Amino acid sequence: MSIAWLPSVLRSPWPGEEHADAWQSLAGTHNCFGRGAAQAPDGLGTGPNAHLHGGRGGRGLITGSLALLADAAHMMTDAGGLALALMAIRFGERPATPQRTYGYLRAEILSALANAVVLLVLTIYILYEAYRRFVDPPEVLGWPMLLVAAVGLAVNLISMRLLSGGSSESLNVQGAYFEVLSDMLGSLGVIVAALVIMWTGWELADPIIGAGIGLFIVPRTWNLLRQATHILLEGAPPRVDVGLMERGIATIPGVVAVHDLHVWTITSGLDAMSAHVTVQDTAEGIRVLRDVRILVKERFGIDHITVQVEDEGLRGTEKATQV
Fold it and tell me: Which secondary-structure segment (H or E) carries 262?
């Protein structure tokens, strides 16, 4: 893993200078991540956050602490993920074109996928570095390690206080609150490792805590990667039972059969559905179409619906497909 960025982070501020303002900005604008938001807030403090935690990573290298470096990597990826999400929101606001009929709405999913991949690569590096330090433990500077972790803990507690009010009102703020909570637990782990090293001289505490922080990231990262991949593969939203939807449409009066039923997610909060519906009498097509739209919207919460109404003769002329 390259550390060519080290000189710049050594010039960065110590943790705590801008972190609280960034999270306060998020708490005040938590609705910006929902579909239909008019505009994402500029910056949202991600620049100061990345600079801040980059400095923490630099101190991790200076002190020789893997636990501090792992905690910094965790927090930097949080800030990076937020920056990617903001960029995706900006990009997603671009209008659709004849070549890109959905516009750039999938930019959000691509950013989530990139964030998950980066997190997994960092975790692999942290675990590899922990193994190396078990074999040949380096010297770890306990006091600087403790000082940096204590400042980070204080900042995370302030951030949690700022977010606590909105966490019960918005899932977005609630997610941010749990991110800060996990960062706070990481800082506590670094403090424990620093105290053990200072009091006992047992430097293996550092790679143990560092590996623990790395492993702590894995379940959340795997879930993010799985969700992003599922969307990119046009999988049905987990909340939608496609079989139940097909049976529901088939019970509408006048419907003979349902086929080529597809349900997928375009981007977060925007699901779509398409289907071919065979009817007994095409004169009833408008009524059937209206009933299908009502059923899919009311029972499954999908507004973006495309339905082809056809008779049995037209159904027989369609070429068989694998989808």
Answer: strand 255-267
Per-residue model confidence as pLDDT tens digits over 240-264: 999 999 999 999 999 999 999 999 9
Q: Which residue, chain included where needed, has tokens 């995706």? A: 88
How crowded is residue 122: how many other Cβ atoms within 10 Å of its Cβ?
20
Sign of CA dihedral 57, 59, 62, 64: negative
Q: Rounded to whole angstroms, what are the CA distances from 155 to 21, 162, 183, 195?
A: 10, 11, 10, 20
Nearest residue to 278 (alpha-carbon basis) of 318, 245, 231: 318
Number of Cβ within a 10 Å radius of residue 313: 9
> What average pLDDT does the structure give for the chain?
74
Q: pLDDT tens-digit profile of 8-48? A: 222 333 333 334 444 444 444 433 334 443 344 444 444 44
DSSP state of 240: -
Say if residues 123 and 218 touch (Cβ distance below 8 Å). yes
The rounded radius of gyration (Å) of the Cα atoms in the chain is 25
The CB-based long-range contact list for 240-245 (8 Å cut-off, 24+ gap) reads 240/271, 240/300, 240/302, 245/273, 245/295, 245/296, 245/299, 245/300
**Closest Cα to residue 162, out of 56, 22, 42?**
22
pTM for the model stands at 0.68
pLDDT computed for residue 187 by the predictor? 83
Residue where the block lists tokens 């597809």:
262
Structure tokens that stand for 15 in this block: 């943790």
Cβ neighbour number for residue 217 with a 10 Å cutoff:
21
